[in-house]
Amino acid sequence: MARIVIIGAGMSGLAVASRLATLGHKVTVCEARDTYGGMVGRYERDGFAFDTGPGLLTLPAVYRDLALKTGREPLEELVRLRPVDPESRHLFPDGTAVSLPNASRGGVVQALDGAFGPGAGERWATVLNHGRTVWEATRRPLLEEPLPADPTALHTDPYPVPGTAPARRGLFGRRRGPRRWTLADVAAEELGGHPGLTALLHEHALRFGLDPRTAPAGATVLPYMEQSFGVWYVEGGLRALADAFFRRCEQRKVEFRFGTPVARVVVEDGRVTGVQTKGDRIDADLVVSSIDARVLHTQWMGPAESSDEWPASASRLHGVPGRVAVLLALRGERPAGTPHRTVVHAADPAAELAGVFDPGVPMDGRPTVQVLRPDDPSLHPAGHEAVVLTATTPSLDLDWGVPGVPEAFADRMLDQVDAAGLGLRERMLWRVVRTPEHTERETGSFFGSVPPPALAGLDGDLLQAPNEDHPGLYLTGGAAHPGGGLARVGMSACIVANLIGPA
């Protein structure tokens, strides 16, 4: 039995703690805040409740596996899951609207043909078929296994660029075309530059903080996964998922020390031997850190002599965008037939991308806004509605601490959704604006950024830090392999638990 200290009680911390305790280890979790869940947070006021992080679950198989491997109850006995159908409704600046069914690629084809004309669905299906090729090539090395000691094979994008030689089975040995394809190239070439289809494709990248102009074509795996495996809602909000696995940790005798920030990771004779909190030292045979890798290396293990000593992914987190969320308490009931998720696309997509990703370019226009409107009476008083708006923004270029900046951006988000006909402002009782500063303060995420998922291509620029970091130290969570997103941090915890093994 090993003594293991886990830094951080976010979802990856809860997941790895429950797995390791089930394997027979003595597990202690140190959490700086007074609660668990990390980015899976909750805001409550006047009988309203809101998820402050992700609001929907993809790849629920990750948490089904966690539930079964750490206890006898299936996930559906821990939380109530229901598929979101339609998966999303998209509103475009020219007035076109399309609702996409959940986990039905054939249904998506029909919906796109109906909205954009015959042939649109076939174009989209071709792109998602290529996304399936990427999924099949990268699923094991990018989601299920530790990052290879030599990740060179993952430096190449497995997206089958038209005109190149057919790929051999698997990730290795694919011949590339004369240049790298980006997601924007896919939109221009395979989607014919159609503005609606382009907006659909780019929105998946933008939501994960990826620039479609530079993201590898293999990022098509993101819409492929969502439309193939479906999107799910946890009744009571995703915070209920964190509640369930916190209880599982308690059942497995995990010790939690809340309000206990770690001041330093103790390294002796080249090996991590514990952590120093502000109160005392906790000795450990192993330490698992779920915090941002760059914070870990620059603040808790002593400053590196050069950025070359940081894990490669950690030195790139500086440029990752953040998210703004507007929590809306609305008077009046949710209108019948309202979709759970609506995406209102920006009128000027090029200006939006420049404002989010190009240094020095102001983000002046109305952004693409995701609107989550769950049909869940537990989230609001009777006769009212709880709504969450989110948009991707620069995490550094906007000074969120300046009075009026967050409110002005929230006004633009509301203007955007109401211009599309949602009519939310007139029903508003109150609102709360949450910026990247909240993310940084509450989760320790560097600069309030949200790490993107790991992807193959770009010479490895989108790979995250390996899970084995230093003798006696393991990394999990969004800033470690296989990257950000609720499903991936669950996979990260599984990989780390398998690396450590049973007591």
From TrEMBL:
Transmembrane segments: none annotated. InterPro entries: Amino_oxidase, FAD/NAD-bd_sf. It holds the Pfam family Amino_oxidase. This is NAD(P)/FAD-dependent oxidoreductase. It comes from the Bacteria. SUPFAM superfamilies: FAD/NAD(P)-binding domain (SSF51905). Residues 11-500 form the Amine oxidase domain. Residues 146-172 are annotated as: Disordered.
